[in-house]
Design goal:
Length: about 280
C-alpha cells in the first residue's frame, strides 16, 4: 500500500525540529531511521500530516563514552552500537545485543532512540535501558529538556510517557563496574525477526557472591521490566546451577504473559523460564 499524503520538513537544528512539532499540534511525527514508521505509514496504521526528518540535524548529540557513562543521541544507529569496542562490560553487552536487532539494512538505518520511542515490548534497547537504569532526555519548545528514568518511560504496549511535541534527544546509560558479569538471551521465529521473549542478567561479584543483581525481561508483558523479586532471590548468594534454576522458575511465576499471534501465555511463560536461565548461565562464561 501507499502512505496517505503528508508534508515533509527537514530541519537542521533541534530547536527547528521542536518548533515544527509544536506548531503541528500533534499531527507531526519524527522520521529517524524510518524502519518502523515507514512500514506503519505504508499500511496506513500511521497517517501523520507532517514528517519531521531529523537526519540532517547538525547539533544532535552523537555517541559519546565519557565520565563513567554512555551518551546516545537521536541519530545513533543500531550499527553504531554494534561497533562499540567491547573493552568494558557495558559496551560488550550492548554490542552483542545489537547483533540481534533486525537484519543488516535495519541495523544500518534504524536508531537507538527511534526504537525506544516506538516502544515495542520486544525491543532489545527497551530492555537494555530498563535493566541499566538509563535516563532519557525529552525536549520540547514549551518546557525545554526534562529527564525521565527509563523505568517510567514505557507506559503500555507501544506507548510511552513522551508527549507529541517532545523529541527524545539523548539517552544516558551509567557505566557498569569493571568485572560486572552479564548474560543476554532471546528467541524469535527467525534470525532478524523481533524476539518473542528476551532476558538480561547483570550482577557484580563481591566475595564470591552476587551483588547489585539485575534481571529484566522483554516481550513477555506489555512493557519490559526488571523482576525485582527474582533479583532478591539471587542477591548475596553464590552463583550456582540450583540457584539459577530457582530464579528462572520464580521468573516464570511472577510474569503476567501476553498472548498474541506469535505465542500464547503458557509458551511465553516457558520462554521466560528458559531465557532467564540461559542469561544467568551465560553470565558465568
Ligand atoms: C524487518 C525488520 C526487523 C526488525 N527487527 C527488530 C528487532 O529485532 N529488534 C528491534 O528492537 N527492532 C526491530 N525492528 C525495528 C527497528 O529497530 C527500528 O529501527 C526501530 O524500531 C525504530 O527506529 P527508527 O530510527 O527506524 O525510527 P522511525 O521508524 O523513524 O520512527 C519510529 C517511531 O519513533 C518516533 N521517533 C523516532 N525517533 C524519535 C526521537 N528521537 N524522539 C521521539 N520520537 C522519535 C517516530 O516518530 C516514530 O513514531 C525491525 C524492523 C524491521 C523493518
Amino acid at each position: 500500500m501507499k502512505p496517505a499524503a503528508f508534508s515533509y520538513q527537514a530541519p537542521t537544528t533541534i530547536d527547528e525540529a521542536l518548533a515544527l512539532l509544536a506548531d503541528a499540534g500533534g499531527d507531526a511525527r519524527i522520521l529517524a531511521g524510518g524502519q518502523s514508521l515507514v512500514p506503519a505509514m505504508a499500511f496506513r496504521l500511521a497517517q501523520p500530516a507532517m514528517l519531521v526528518d531529523i537526519n540532517g540535524l547538525s547539533d544532535a548529540p552523537r555517541l559519546a563514552e565519557e565520565d563513567g557513562r554512555l551518551e546516545i543521541g537521536p541519530l545513533v544507529r543500531h550499527q553504531d552500537i554494534r561497533r562499540l569496542t567491547p573493552r568494558r562490560p557495558l559496551t560488550a553487552m550492548l554490542s552483542t545485543m545489537a547483533q540481534h536487532v533486525g537484519p543488516w539494512p535495519v541495523r544500518s538505518r534504524g536508531t537507538f532512540c527511534g526504537s525506544l520511542a516506538h516502544a515495542d515490548p520486544a525491543s532489545e534497547w527497551a530492555l537494555a535501558v530498563v535493566a541499566l537504569d538509563a535516563n532519557l532526555t525529552l525536549e520540547s519548545t514549551a518546557d525545554g529538556p526534562r529527564s525521565v528514568p527509563a523505568g517510567d518511560f514505557f507506559s503500555a504496549m507501544m506507548a510511552t510517557s513522551a508527549r507529541e511535541d517532545e523529541m527524545l534527544t539523548a539517552v544516558t546509560i551509567p557505566d557498569l563496574a569493571a568485572g560486572t558479569r552479564w548474560g543476554f538471551a532471546e528467541i524469535g521465529r527467525r534470525t532478524g525477526d523481533f524476539a518473542i521473549v528476551l532476558a538480561l542478567a547483570i550482577y557484580e561479584m563481591k566475595g564470591g557472591r552476587m551483588s547489585r543483581v539485575r534481571i529484566a525481561v522483554g516481550g513477555a508483558e506489555a512493557v519490559p521490566r526488571r523482576l525485582v523479586d527474582v533479583e532478591t532471590v539471587l542477591e548475596g548468594t553464590a552463583p550456582s546451577k540450583p540457584r539459577f534454576l530457582q530464579a528462572a522458575e520464580y521468573a516464570a511465576d511472577v510474569v503476567d504473559p501476553l498472548e498474541d499471534g506469535y505465542a500464547d501465555a503458557l509458551y511465553r511463560r516457558d520462554l521466560v523460564r528458559a531465557l532467564v536461565l540461559r542469561a544467568l548461565q551465560q553470565s558465568t562464561r
